[in-house]
Amino acid sequence: MASAEQALRNALRAPELGDFTAPEPGRVPVITDTALVLLRRSGESPLDPAARRVMEANQRADLLRQRLHAGERPAETRVELTAALNELRAAISEQLATSPEASRTVLAEELVHTQRELESLVRSEEGQVLFSREPGTGRLIENRVVYEPAVERTAADRVRTGAERAGRVLGAVMVIQTIREQHELEERARSGRTTVVEGLAGTTHNFQGLTIGLRMMSGIHVHPGEFVVMSALSFTQAVSADYASREEAAVAISRVAITEGINLFLMVLSQAMMRSGNPYVVAAGFGIMLLGGPIVAFLDYVGVFDAIERASAFLPSEVTAANQELRDLMTEYRAIVGAIELGQRSDAQLRAVGVSDPEALRRSAAMDINSNRASARAKEGELLAAFERAYGRARTEYAGLFELDTLRAQFLQLREQVHRGEEGGAEAAARVTSRFDEIDRQLGQATAAMSEEQVREMPQWSHLDDGFDELESLLRAEEIDWEEVREKHVEVQQMLRNARYRVDPAAFGLRAAPLMAAEAAGRATYDRLLATAEARLNRDEFALIAESPRAALSASVGRPAATMTMPSRPPGAAPTASADVTLIAVEDALRAYRALLARAPAHPDAALLHRDSEAVAVTYRRFVAEHGDYAAYLQRLQTVEASLLRLAERALSGSSGAAAGTAAGTARDLALRVRAAVSERRDRDGLLFLDELDPVAARVRATETRRLAPRLGEAPGTQPLTAEELAALSGGRLEDRAAGISTVSNRLDQVQGLRIPASEDEPIGGVFHVVGTIESLPLLITEIPVTTIREDENILVGRAGASTGSVSPRGHFDMVRVVPLNAAAVNRLGGAGIRSLPDYSLRPVRLRDLAAPAATPAAAPSTPVGSAAAGAGR
């Protein structure tokens, strides 16, 4: 190598090469020796075929040399040039055989140069002298081969190589996660919990993620722009999803935006660091890519997303904060209540749910109760502080008092249950009560000293005026967006309820004494402002109940005065607006409500909804998601119904003080007819609102469970585990004893697609009989059965999740997540937990097959199925 380089340097220092410059093609063509031979031989006659072959091969080779010199597709061009030079060599050899003696020297020399150029294209030894033709001139160029010395790999290169190998593993993880996310998306789409745009964006995101993961596994470079596209799809999916509340939407969208932003920033920073020559910087750059999850978890820990929820909530942020504190405390409370309930069960009841040693379980429950109580006490202090801040903010605010009193009642009830019988519990309860007493005292002081001017300046009145203006603007639109109308109507009702709650909390059943006493200085002004606001809401609600809300608003007489502009004392010429609601007006509203029910679009059968939990939880929800006209109708119907119920309540409360009992009796009768119409809407007509689906589905599922559980072997009188007991068994010392503690009813609650047929000869939806090989060992083109279940073992399972594809020598099949249902299945499958079984082993079960469970003898104890499912692919 060194000698070749030295020889090249010596040659370049030679006198004849000292002023060497690269040749430039001129306008006058350069005639090579070979071309002169050809021209001399042809003279004035045309070229013979052999000479023409030499000329055409030379032209093709020269064209390819120019492409190679320009860097145009180097690999492909080198191959084509090699073929062209081979053809030229053959043509020159043919021409050489018939050429005159004077021309043979030139052709022979050209043949040698062509051979050397061919060799240089394939492999050239270091220091070898090569000759080639200059593109465009045909001049003969002498070249010397000098190989660049191999560059020694640095530590940074080795770290980058390791990072590339780790990236292959990350690609495999990405593929697995993407497949799981797609299964979850399909499951949500099946149950109608996704929008069309969300489904398309999510599927596109997962498909792109799958291709990226596969390329990463193969070591193929992925352009950073593809991850930007993935982030955009994730954000689109989050924005287009359907949320139960404004706060839920804000938190979900913010979480996705923050997460994707952090990941993209870390990706850019990581790539910049991995280009460094410092191995430590390269290693740190690779590690930075993995920090996205921990950073988001840290933001969650410090309360960033809780702050977003508070900022986006309709209620004052301090009220939402108190709700968040109670929500966290509920986790501790549920575990404590569940442990208490388990400890209070009798030995027989515990053995019925699978407890082998009741005394040992009670000891574990007692230890969990003590440890969770200690943790709960610390959180109780934080919650009480949050209550104090929230009540301090809600004293004069537009909303929050009723919600805080509701949370307070819930907290005190659960706290009493959790700390019942605890040593020192009475003193602790007294301290909690005294803190709430102090809160109430401060609330009373804040409102008792209010002047008329201070009452008029309370924020709730301006918020109410803004809410009324926005609601009426929505009702006057050409095309009414009933989803927005419903959201704004709920907010206005919430604010007005808060205003009414200050002076009449007894009507809501949470406290007796008003927060603003009747003798307070500003009470008269408060009552007038409240009456004005209620009168305005009455008018707006009668309008939105009407067939044409826009026309009803335009036809209304005058407009109630804005609460903020009401004088402290009403002038004699301007009577105070009345908040009373007449019975005749409510009768008209009820007729309009029934007329709206009669105009309902086509929808699923009502009888099926109250007989089949799957029809409620999945079919009906998907129907609403797929039929926008019906979804808009439900939004309108729900808004009209809420207005009707409030107006009927106002009419009833207005007639309660009547001297004669006739008006009060008529009002009560009307209120009952309103309630009956609402029940008919839900039970007879099957017009279910989305927030009613889960309670209705739970009620129907409870009925289905009660029907099936005895036929699956559950003993009469068995008490299923409560939600609190299940929560207690999921942590602490009780978790170590949770294996096998379950009931048939609890396992039936996990079955997806459960449907009880109308006929005994029809199959039960979601329930299967396991027969055949469930585990096998693949061996080349066949498989060896590991675990096989006979039909007479009577192994019954229920579908408990989505299926995943798998492949074995028998071909492609699905692995289905199932939960054991009867005792034979629990014993044979190694426990009551969820596991996966191949779909070819699951057979339908008729209702008749479960008619006499006692007649089916229990299978003889056999070895529980292990975890060595090599070919079944759990």
Share of helix, binned: 55-70%
The dominant shape is elongated
The unreliable regions are: 25-31, 36-43, 559-577, 853-874
Beta-strand content estimate: 5-15%
Radius of gyration: 42 Å
**Biggest sheet: strands, sense, closure?**
5 strands, antiparallel
Count the E strands: 9
Name the structural class: alpha+beta
Question: Would you mind describing this structure in some detail?
Answer:
The chain has about 850 residues and is of the alpha+beta class. About 60% of the residues lie in helices and about 10% in strands. It contains 31 helices and nine strands. The longest helix is centred in the middle third of the chain and has 37 residues. It is elongated, with a radius of gyration of 42 Å. The C terminus is likely disordered.
